[in-house]
Every structure is written in C-alpha cells, then in structure tokens.
Input
Amino acid sequence: MPTERFFKLSSEKRKEVADAIRDEYERTSYRELHISKIARNAKISRASLYTYFSGREDLFRFAVAQAERGKE
Output
C-alpha cells in the first residue's frame, strides 16, 4: 500500500497517480506492467513513484483496493 509520503500529496495529485496506476493495469497484465508509463502518465518521476510505493506488488495491491472501493 502507499507510503505516508503519498498521503501528503494534494488530493488532485493523489488522484492523478491513482488514475495512472488504474489505467496501466486496465491496459496490460501484471507481468507486462511498465512503472515508467505510470510515472509518465501521472506526471511524476519514476523515483517519486518509488517514494510512494515500494514496487510492482504494492502498486497492484493499491489498484485492487481502489477497484474494490469503487464498487461500493
């Protein structure tokens, strides 16, 4: 799940990052996921993305949690 630093972002930036993660998972499979594409679409650096999430598994868990939250 996201780090504490992620939650310090503005709500607009958090949404932008979350949308970029969701969009990438909708387009591709877990194995083919490109962290660089997520960062580019969120308009942040790849290094910044890694300060918000520890890696691919963390991004996946966040995407699943967001999808579940959207179904409520």
In short: The first helix runs from residue 4 to 7.
